[in-house]
């Protein structure tokens, strides 16, 4: 992503370069989860119309410069001598005890924002596989809103430059390859959480009969950043606030509204063809492992 393509207040966000690269299809890499592999593959749905790109193969978000201002939206992160930071520390200790559990394996998968892998995140909760072949408009919707929700966190991230827990405690994360870039990327608020909660909210609109499962999966995706040692709990909580602001702004965008209607039709078509995701039992088992004390 060229920095000139970003809103000016977001240009200092080095991790957004990696986030944009995550939109590039990684078809040569095997998926970390089998959740999105359908039991039957219908004929490919019509491809959506071309959209502007940040660079070849990376679609732009819907909002452009009309992003919610996370610096104005959020309070400062907790001070190190505050009760709120003491709670962050307590949740950090609890989350780090889950490294030998199925939840840690899922958290490692959720750390990966690359497409097509990340597009499968909500397949089990939605009850249909999400892929570029079977639901191309929904796939594009996820790509474009990832950019919007991710970029919306950077006004606050770049201002506060909060130290991440793995740096603070001189520990590791579930994604060692990402640690160098994360060290210079502000922890507050959580970009992964802003993205996953935006997705959970918009998917709930598309499929309200699956709301409980979708919202639970979106919550777990963000909380998995605690298990990965990449974020404090207050980062995660405020990431949801950014997501709410991003989705409100998206609803004023005509292209987003159009794609939501087309994505809804794709989901209904997949359900009509009885196409279902597989691998959901392992995800269910992982999600059953709670983080003690998490809010």
Please explain how this structure is put together.
The protein has one domain: Vanadium-containing Chloroperoxidase, domain 1, CATH 1.20.144. Helix content is 51%, strand content 2%. The protein is built from 14 helices and two strands; from the N terminus they run αββααααααααααααα. A two-stranded antiparallel sheet has the order 1-2. Helix 10 packs antiparallel against helix 11. The radius of gyration is 18 Å and the shape is globular. The N terminus is likely disordered.
Structural class determined from secondary elements: mainly alpha
The total strand number stands at 2
Average residue-wise pLDDT: 88
Which residue ranges are poorly predicted, with pLDDT under 50 across at least 5 consecutive positions? 1-15, 20-41
- Beta percentage is under 5%
Task: Please name the CATH topology.
Answer: Vanadium-containing Chloroperoxidase, domain 1
In DSSP terms, counting alpha (H) and pi (I) runs of 4 or more, how many helices?
14
CATH class value = Mainly Alpha
């Amino acid at each position: 992503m060229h920095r000139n393509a970003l809103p000016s207040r977001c240009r200092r966000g080095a991790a957004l370069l990696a986030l944009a690269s995550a939109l590039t299809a990684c078809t040569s890499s095997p998926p970390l989860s089998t959740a999105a592999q359908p039991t039957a593959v219908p004929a490919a749905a019509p491809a959506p119309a071309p959209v502007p790109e940040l660079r070849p193969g990376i679609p732009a978000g819907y909002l452009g410069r009309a992003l919610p201002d996370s610096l104005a939206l959020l309070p400062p992160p907790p001070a190190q001598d505050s009760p709120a930071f003491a709670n962050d520390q307590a949740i950090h200790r609890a989350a780090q005890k889950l490294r030998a559990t199925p939840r840690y394996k899922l958290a490692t998968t959720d750390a990966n924002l690359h497409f097509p892998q990340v597009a499968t995140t909500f397949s089990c909760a939605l009850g249909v596989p999400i892929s570029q072949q079977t639901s191309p408009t929904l796939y594009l919707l996820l790509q474009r809103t990832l950019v919007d929700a991710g970029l919306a966190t950077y006004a606050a991230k770049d201002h506060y430059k909060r130290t991440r827990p793995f740096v603070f405690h001189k520990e590791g994360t579930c994604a060692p390859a990402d640690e160098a870039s994360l060290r210079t990327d502000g922890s507050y608020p959580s970009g992964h959480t802003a993205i996953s909660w935006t997705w959970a909210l918009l998917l709930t609109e598309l499929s309200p009969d699956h709301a409980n499962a979708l919202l639970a999966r979106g919550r777990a995706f963000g909380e998995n950043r605690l298990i990965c040692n990449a974020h404090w709990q207050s980062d995660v909580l405020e990431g949801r606030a950014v997501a709410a602001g991003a989705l409100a702004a998206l609803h004023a965008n005509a292209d987003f509204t159009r794609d939501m209607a087309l994505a809804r039709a794709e989901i209904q078509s997949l359900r009509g063809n009885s196409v279902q995701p597989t691998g959901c039992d392992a995800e269910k088992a992982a999600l059953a492992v709670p983080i003690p004390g998490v809010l």
